[in-house]
Design goal:
Layout lengths: L3 H40 L1 H8 L12 H32 L5 H8 L1 H31 L10 H18 L2 H11 L4 H6 L1 H15 L4 H38 L1
């Protein structure tokens, strides 16, 4: 006959196994979506290539047959990561859902489409604003001096490095809201480290842009604005959280 301690241990072990099984299921779904979107990206590489090279006055070149394959893989991977992100968030929500109340489930589910919208917004801002500014500035430096001949690999690496980071930077306010709701951060802490955050953001701005003060401002200012938006959103969530705790205390 099993003792109470043995029964408790067995129950905890079964619970851990259930969590591991559920996590495995969610990871398999994420992998499935990633592979599906990767395959779709491979099919659409030619159309994507045409879109991103439509305004170039010159033809991109490749230096080896392997580079052609690398371009296909790189483009398909970026497409797969971008398209899988909302499904990743949804599967993460499904994983933690059993531990949430009915109200918490409804609130946290809103984060899933918000992640996608902010990600797309960041991509559009990075491509149509930051990338255009940086590319135009760099091209103006060599105007009349050089014959432009870029490899497809270098050009698409440039696009990704000047566009994709902003897709993730745009998630900062949402991340701040989520971490505040969990009690990990609060607006007071964010305000205390504001000057250090600004320093990091300015450094990121200089890393993402050429050594031109105006362009560095164009990159750094949106990052600082996003941080301030994150502080405001954190404050809103924090006030609601405090109000809810006070209501529970009164009851």
């Amino acid at each position: 006959m099993m003792t109470q301690d043995e029964q408790t241990y067995t129950g905890e072990e079964m619970e851990v196994m259930e969590h591991v099984g559920e996590l495995r299921k969610r990871l398999l779904w994420i992998l499935f979506f990633f592979v599906a979107f990767f395959a779709a990206g491979l099919v659409l590489v030619e159309d994507i290539y045409t879109f991103f090279t439509r305004n170039l006055d010159f033809q991109l070149v490749v230096l080896s047959p392997w580079e052609i394959m690398w371009i296909h893989i790189m483009v398909a991977t970026v497409i797969a990561i971008s398209a899988t992100l909302p499904f990743f968030c949804f599967q993460a929500w499904l994983f933690v859902r059993p531990g949430l109340t009915s109200k918490e489930r409804k609130v946290t589910l809103i984060y899933v489409p918000a992640v996608l919208l902010l990600f797309i917004g960041g991509l559009l801002f990075g491509y149509f604003v930051i990338q255009e500014l940086i590319f135009g500035f760099l091209m103006s430096l060599g105007e009349g001096m050089f014959e432009n001949m870029f490899t497809a690999d270098k050009y698409f690496r440039f696009l990704i490095s000047t566009t994709l980071p902003f897709a993730f930077f745009f998630e900062v306010p949402l991340i701040a809201m989520f971490l505040t709701s969990l009690g990990i951060i609060d607006p007071g802490k964010m305000k205390k480290v504001r000057k250090y955050a600004y320093l990091v953001l300015v450094i990121l701005g200089t890393m993402l842009s050429p050594p031109d003060f105006i362009l560095q401002l164009f990159v750094a200012v949106p990052l600082i604005v996003l941080y301030e938006v994150a502080v405001v959103m954190s404050q809103l969530v924090y006030k609601r959280k405090i109000a809810k705790e006070e209501e529970l205390a009164v009851e």
